[in-house]
Amino acid sequence: MPFFRRRDFPFPSGGPSGSLKDDNDITFDPLAVAAVLSNPRADRSAARLYLQLDRNDYKWPHTMMVGGTLPPMNTLVAHLSMNVTSIHPAITMCGIDIKLIPVRSDMIFKEFPVNNSNYRLNDLVEFRSSELAGNDFMVINMDDLDSKARRMHKLGMGPWPGRILLHLIGLANGILLLTGVAFSVLTADIWAGILFLFYALHWLASTFISYTQMIRIDVKGNIVEDPKPRYAVYQRPEGGTVIFKGRKETLERWARETMEFNKTPKIVFLHWFWMISGTMAATASVACMVNMRGYMQLGFLAVLLYSSAAEIVATQISRRLQAASRGDFSHQLVDGNITRTKGIIRATIENPTNCRLKGLNWIALELLPNWPLYEEMLRMLARINDLQDENERNGGVDMEAEVEKAIRMFTTETTKPGTDPARIILARRIADETRDAWAAGSGQQIKEKERVQTKVGAHV
To answer: Is the distance from CB of 111 to CB of 103 less than 8 angstroms?
Structure first.
């Protein structure tokens, strides 16, 4: 057996030793991308910042939430890559806050814009349906929404705490960022200083924009006045029908609304200041955060978390301020209908006057089959509406007898000898639904009159 000596093996002569390496290389960490994650709320917040839908009542603050720097960066990229004839990128960004809903209308318009930040209208369009969603009807009087409510309800001292709180939310965000800049300087952390500085500059640009009209809403074309009520019907994909009622000029002005960017030197400067500072802040989030000291990273994450939570609080505050500034307006939900005809009949004769679907031609809008029976139903409802108007204007109409007469005329025309038995059953069902709707509507009117008289008596 061969004999091996120690020197035949490559063992080191000394003992094990180790040393720490002082590494100052720039590194990147995927976790730093958390600051620029896609966030739909950030997109909507940026759009509201530019639109300021309720600028006369309160100012919407833009917080530096998670993903808050992506909208300006995307807008800058759109500027650098757009065609000369393209829509202004600021308008495209604001389009995130607007959804076009398809409607069937007795006008030429096939779509109407609804702002997501118009909480009052958007909540009604997205109403909670019943178990029989396909037979639910929400009637919205757009004349009240646009004019009457604003004249009757003004912001008083009551909503001031909410307006001040919105300012404090934005101010607190700026103070946190400036504090981050100060601590970065004191601790000689250049990476944290650059990050907080760019975010502070972006916050400053957003604050200036909140007090500036960046986008104006314009209405193109001449609008001819017409006192006759017009309708636009939106059938929701999830079930339920929304019916917008209003004068021709009200609905046409709404349909013709377009956004325009104010291209004044001041507005253009603020726009580019906002985009560039936001883009630099987004870049710094990835390049600087991982190289910062650990406690500064925690501080920056705390700012993002505060801003994200503050945006949710600001949304709830603005919702209440909008309700206070715009006031109540006429709308009526007709739900729980076993059949579609019952919902149509109730919305036509049971609803209050300003939400009554008088003159809505369901057949012409292809919302009912073009059957003689349904034509007779619409004629009957029109007669009852005329009787209601006459009685409300002058009084003296025996409504119960006249309504029953209109129902008998409808039954006579739709149940003639030789008529299909299935159509006869449908006609009798419609007659019963009309009686029920009239009884319910007259009962509501009596209660409303008693309530008004009680209220007047209490004031006297």
So the answer is: yes
User: Side-chain half-sphere of 272: how many Cα atoms within 13 Å?
Assistant: 8
The token pair at 330 is 């006429």
Measured distance CA(408)–CA(424) in Å, rounded: 13
Contact 72, 279 (CB under 8 A): yes
Q: Where are the domains of the chain?
A: 30-148+160-326, 339-459
SS3 assignment, position 101 = strand
pLDDT band at 458 (very low <50, low <70, confident <90, very high): very low
Rounded CA gap, 367 and 356, in Å? 17
Cα 191 vs. chain centroid, distance in angstroms? 39
What is the per-residue pLDDT for 73? 93
Residue 104, SS3 per DSSP = strand
Which three-class secondary structure state does DSSP give residue 135?
helix
In this prediction, residue 31 carries a pLDDT of 59
CA distances from 19 to 16, 22, 80, 205, 320 (A): 11, 10, 50, 48, 63
- Please tell me the least confidently modeled range out of 30-39, 304-313, 434-443: 30-39
- What's the DSSP call for residue 112? E
Could you please report the per-residue DSSP string of 221-251? S------SEEEEEEE-TTS-EEEEEEEHHHH
Instruction: Give the count of alpha carbons within 13 A of 240, CB side only.
Output: 19
DSSP readout, 60-96? PPPP--TTTTHHHHHHHHHHHH--TTSPPHHHHHHGG
Closest listed residue to residue 411, CA positions, set 438, 436, 439, 379: 379
